[in-house]
Amino acid sequence: MWFRRDLRLTDNPALLSAIANSDEIVPLFILDPNLISQAGSKRLAYLANSLRELDKSLSGRLHVVAGDQVEVLRSYNPEEVHISQEFEPYGAARDSRVESSGINLIRTGSPYAVAPGRVRKPDETNYRVYTPFYKAWLAHGWRAPVSAPKEINALQPTKEQRQFPDWQTDYVIPTAGEGAALARFEWFKKNALDNYDEQRNMAGIDGTSKMSAHLKFGEVHPRTLLKNLGASKAHDTFRKEIAWREFYADVLFNYPNTIDEYYTEKFANMRYDEPGEKFKAWCEGRTGYPFVDAAMRQLVQTGWMHNRTRMVVASFLVKDLHIEWQHGANFFMEHLVDFDPASNSHGWQWTAGCGTDASPYYRVFNPTEQGRKFDPEGEYIRRYIPELSELSNELIHVPGLSYITPIVDHKLERVESLARLEEIKG
Fold first, then answer.
1. Strand partners, 65
2. In terms of CB atoms within 10 Å, which of 58, 116, 234, 281 comes out highest?
3. CB atoms < 10 A from the CB of 206, how many?
4. Are 162 and 26 in contact (CB under 8 A)?
5. Using CA atoms, how far apart are residues 84 and 228, in angstroms rounded to an integer?
6. Which segments within 32-68 are labelled E, that is strand?
């Protein structure tokens, strides 16, 4: 059993398939040098913690080996290698390479309630707009989650097969592991789910599920989150958020080049500025716009950012600083614990106005008004910009009063952004 983005025992079809097909399994995780080189310290530390939690669940029998996947798998001389199917460009290409080497991969299940490519229009083409996709996704449906196996007969690893990484970080990151995922979701169901439609955008409160990192590493399957959701507006809003993740995975599956290229190609012809000192200020949370700076500091300090502020900082980079979305997406890739290729690239393209089902480019988020609306008491800003903690709830949102002079004038840059849009409209 080759674990990848499915670091759990509950509702793991590939694991169940491996157990059913053999008397003894080898639970294996391969440390991929390519993926390691792209991840920042926070995501690596989270992965290291997640692997140790999975090892505990397997009674200390998880094999962890660094190296080329083909070479590592061949060292076990396996008859079958059971996997959960992956669909993003890198994972799909890696699995094809492994198969072409003669290794027998058995694909069972995926990281999604409905695997990319399965939700189709009546004419068998893919959906390019979210709302009809969501309706078809619901109509397609998914099976109920299954329990963890009662018994796992696993091969005891040798010392050489216990290459657990000792990645650490000085930052406070989310707690990793299947147990933490299920515990957090239970908390969310009891304390925030029923008000999710009203509270999910409020940056200063704990009103979201915080399942994104657990989903990224497969510590919980989306079917587990979907089970028992009701028909209320709050529950349906949460269901739709899961569907957005699946929609973006489907889009990337059908248009793999959009991981770093424009979904709407004309936006590649827009005039953009090269990243320089203003980009550095954005990365460091020093733009002079408190809501933007609080969000960027949250990202760097915790490896997570509230979904509302992800949109605000993305709009600011692309439409106030006129810097291409890929630069921001790459910075997110480095720092986000929950980094997901499809959600990251297409979330950025949605805000930048160039993605599928995108927010119109002429919709430019006002960072000050966004703060007033979604952090009215200033709790979020005070948490990450303590130098503003003494300001009143009204003044805390005003750029330029203290700490940093704004690097741009939002009103002027909005006009400039729309002028650049006019240049490519033809």
1. 30
2. 116
3. 11
4. no
5. 24
6. 63-66
